[in-house]
Design brief:
This protein has 16 helices and eight strands. The chain has an eight-stranded mixed β-sheet. The model has no long low-confidence stretch (mean pLDDT 97). Helix 8 (191-202) runs antiparallel to helix 13 and helix 13 (293-316) packs across helix 16. It starts with a strand and ends in a 15-residue tail after the last helix. With 377 residues, the chain is α/β, with parallel strands linked by helices.
Amino acid sequence: MNVGIIGAGTMGIGIAQVAATNGCKVWVYDANAKQVETATIGLEKTLTRLVDKQKISSEKMVEILANISIATELKDFKDCELVIEAIIENKEIKTKIFTELEKHVSESCVIASNTSSISITSLGAELQIPKRFIGIHFFNPAPLMPLVEIIPSLLTEKSLADKMYNLVKDWGKVPVMAKDIPGFIVNRIARPYYGEGLRIVEENIATVEQVDDAMKRLGNFKMGPFELMDLIGVDVNFSVTTTVYKDYFYDPKYKPSLLQQRMSEAKLHGRKTGKGFYDYAEGSSKPEPHKAEALYQQIFLRIISMLINEAVEAKRLGVANDEDLELAMQKGVNYPKGLLAWGKEIGYAKISETLQNLHDEYQEERYRQSPLLRKLN
């Protein structure tokens, strides 16, 4: 298959690597021509490390690089059967490039967006042929993360979702089908992991270090919410939360954090800027949290209850089937267990009681329960 990639950032070049590894001929385009050159050099270094670690052969490295070409303009995609866009999360910019792209590709070419939070229907509706448009959402880093969300719009041709599902499966990924709702599966369900952690810190209930430690020790999460925000980028995480909040008509469940906004404004974006919720300067070390068992239990139960409630609501609304809901959270954000199974293990009655207590204390819609939660056992 001939595949075009628009955007040569970390995500774009990562998707290009995945496609090229699986024998596709890939063309990579970026409005900033220098970025494509930089990304290609970076990819060569990445592949060299994989050869050194004996993850791939030197012959495979040569094959992957030979499969990738630099596109200097969109008309270079004229022979592509699939074009995946992976640029800035801005609807107007994406729409503009799709409109231009349609002038140069065949009518049968599939056009896809790697957007993490923008409505696929709203993007596809601007195309001359909206039935060929679909969401194919990879997770960062694309070569390593197994999950890919396949999101058809209301206008997508029915058979196209299955076709793209099978394609990314052939590429060695774990695809899941998702409804075109804000945040799709992972970015919708995962919001409380960050949001509730931020609220706990904002209210001086616990420190950043304590929240992270509690979720790792009691929940066996690989990273606490603040470590994860620093890795993702505090600004990126805030942007996704803001988009989901707006797209759900300002539902209090997804209300962004003032602390995260201030961190974004201060350019304390995490690892990429050298400082976020933690300091990443050379020689710096993370503060040791004061361990308090009762507090840790409170933190864990509060955050996990919000996550499980969100998964149950996604089940109720048919965002995805149960298997895909569980797979998405485990393969997309490395959760140690599927949230529906976790709810059953803790006891849905306990989750319901926790949320009811939070609702009674705060008197906020933020803590309302899914109508399905009390019916589960």
